[in-house]
Amino acid sequence: MNVIWIGVAAFVGGMVAALLGWLETQEDFDARKFGSSGVRALVAAILFAVGFNYTNHVTPIDIGWAFLGGAGIDVLGNRIAGSISARRSN
Questions:
Q1: Residue 66 belongs to what domain range?
Q2: Is residue 80 pLDDT above 80, yes or no?
Q3: Within a domain: residue 90?
Q4: More confident residue, 25 or 16
Q5: ∠ CA 21-35-50 to the nearest 5 degrees?
Q6: How many Cβ atoms from other residues are within 10 Å of residue 81's Cβ?
Q7: 74 near 14, Cβ under 8 Å?
Q8: Number of domains into which the chain is organized
Q9: Is 20 domain-assigned?
Q10: Is 56 contained in some domain?
Q11: Cα 28 from Cα 2, distance rounded (Å)
């Protein structure tokens, strides 16, 4: 059950980062961009759940780290995708 909480925290962290990024741009909602953030958040959730699979207990600090890790993976993935897209357009 603890693994599920870690995965959910990482997924929610990624989705919150995506939502805040969209709110910052003040553009119309683009489901394609938001969907790719959802995929990155799912990958973060799986990675963190597998990483915490071998611990016997999970503390609130662990859940916080998973949340921040999920957000970080989404932000990093978005920056990488943006830089690749910018290089292709030049």
A1: 2-85
A2: yes
A3: no
A4: 16
A5: 95
A6: 14
A7: yes
A8: 1
A9: yes
A10: yes
A11: 37
pTM above threshold 0.70? yes
In the block, tokens 């683009």 appear at: 30
- Produce one character per residue of 2-29: b if its CB has 16 or more CB atoms within 10 Å, e if not: bbebbbbbbbbbbbebbeebbeeeeeee
Q: What tokens does 71 get? A: 């957000």
Give me 4's structure tokens: 């599920």
Which tokens in the block code for residue 67?
A: 């949340």
Average pLDDT (18-23) is 88
HEC profile of the chain = CHHHHHHHHHHHHHHHHHHHHHHHHCCCCCHHHHHHHHHHHHHHHHHHHHHCCCCCCCCHHHHHHHHHHHHHHHHHHHHHHHHHHHHHHC
Tokens for 66?
Answer: 């998973």
Name every residue whose Cβ is closer than 8 Å to that of residue 62 and which is 6 or more positions away in sequence. Answer: 6, 52, 55
